[in-house]
Amino acid sequence: MFGLFGKKPMLDADSQHRIVACIKEAEGKTSGEVRVFIEHHCHYVDPMDRAREIFASLSMENTTARNAVIVYVALTDRQFALFGDSAIYEKAGGAEFWKSAAAKLTGHLRKNEITEGLCNCIQELGAALAAHFPYDPTVKKNELPDEIVFGK
User: Fold this and answer.
1) Which of 9, 60, 137, 142 is most deeply buried (CB count within 10 A of its CB)?
2) What does pTM read for this prediction?
């Protein structure tokens, strides 16, 4: 299957649907937000720098409780980064939690299990968000869109 101008899509429709469903499920238990951004190439030496840039460009720091997380993946370059806003980064356990989540995602990506890896990662991030930022009916339920954002 090929997309516009003959380029193969980054993820097929079924994979996209599964990932968005995981985001919706994870966010249903928390006031936190999860976004996924996928592109072919990372134009930075460190993918964390790109994740920070995307986080800001998507205005993810504007969530009420500062509890948004982005999962950034550069497919062709085989790089990724997990970046959480200040409140969730600290409450989830600091660097150790994020290293553990990254190691699990790495295992899936090495086996080319992109969809499974992203879904498992989203579930793990969602559980951390739910533990520290449970669903709160006073907070606007969905502060950020659930769709996957695709770069170049």
Assistant:
1) 60
2) 0.92
Contact present, 41 and 80 (Cβ < 8 Å): no
Q: How far apart are CA 9 and CA 63, in angstroms?
A: 30
Q: Which domains does the chain have, with CATH numbers?
A: 10-150 (3.10.310.50)
The CA distance from 108 to 105, in Å, is 5
pLDDT tens for 21-43 read: 999 999 999 999 999 999 999 99
Q: What is the maximum alpha-carbon separation in the chain?
A: 46
